């Protein structure tokens, strides 16, 4: 299967370089280019690539808002965004992840690593190393709750209280004198014990293969558990799972 990619960067040389690497590799195709965020949104909606490589600082519309518009629009449903950045601690990276990006790459990434990253995200995994995951959680933890609710990455089922929808809530209502269910309680009702284990490991930045090694299960089984988590928690990708795990108290800022 060919992975289709669009590249958004206001620097022509950078854009041409990424496109050249991708187009020259079997199994990949370039389906669009953009020199600003508005063009990136238009390309994503028209070409519906599997992946958009998105620069952050661009004219007309920055990469953060472009990412938010792409991931929120039914016209570009299924399009995943990888942020391109110069610095791995760039504060814009955290904002972009909240806006719906599935990971990020440094612009000095080696060609082989670029292609691997695209494959990983196209397969539904988030491109987050454990150290980056910890920083993401720490940054998210410093954000006031109202902002989290409108930020995008916390928009999964736990972020909007999965038991808040009567159609999706467990059928047993709390007794009048019972304290309101915590996020952890709701998580325990929604997930199996094994799924909670897998979610904790996802929140540490582990890949499916690493989760499989840790739990002594096959990679295919690990992938199935992650797929169930995405469905049950109404999460788009592993980035959202990390934030949901934090909100439920399954992991904590480093």
Short description:
The chain is an alpha/beta fold and 254 residues long. The chain has helices spanning 12-23, 37-47, 63-72, 91-98, 111-122, 130-141, 145-149, 183-190, 193-202, 208-215, 219-232, 238-247; strands at residues 3-8, 28-34, 51-55, 80-85, 103-106. Helix content is 47%, strand content 11%.
Q: Would you give the CATH topology of the largest domain? A: Rossmann fold
Give the biggest beta sheet.
Answer: 5 strands, parallel
Radius of gyration: 19 Å
Total individual domains: 2
Q: Specify the CATH class of the largest domain.
A: Alpha Beta
Uncertain residue ranges: 145-177
Rounded average pLDDT = 78
CATH architecture of the largest domain: 3-Layer(aba) Sandwich
Order of helices and strands: EHEHEHEHEHHHHHHHH
Distance between the termini: 39 Å
Q: How many distinct helices?
A: 12
Kindly report the name of the CATH homologous superfamily of the largest domain: Response regulator
Enumerate the strands of the largest sheet in spatial order, edge to edge or round the barrel: 2-1-3-4-5
Class computed from helices, strands and strand pairing: alpha/beta
The beta-strand count equals: 5
Report the principal-axis shape. Answer: globular
Q: Percent of residues in beta strands?
A: 5-15%
Helix content: 40-55%
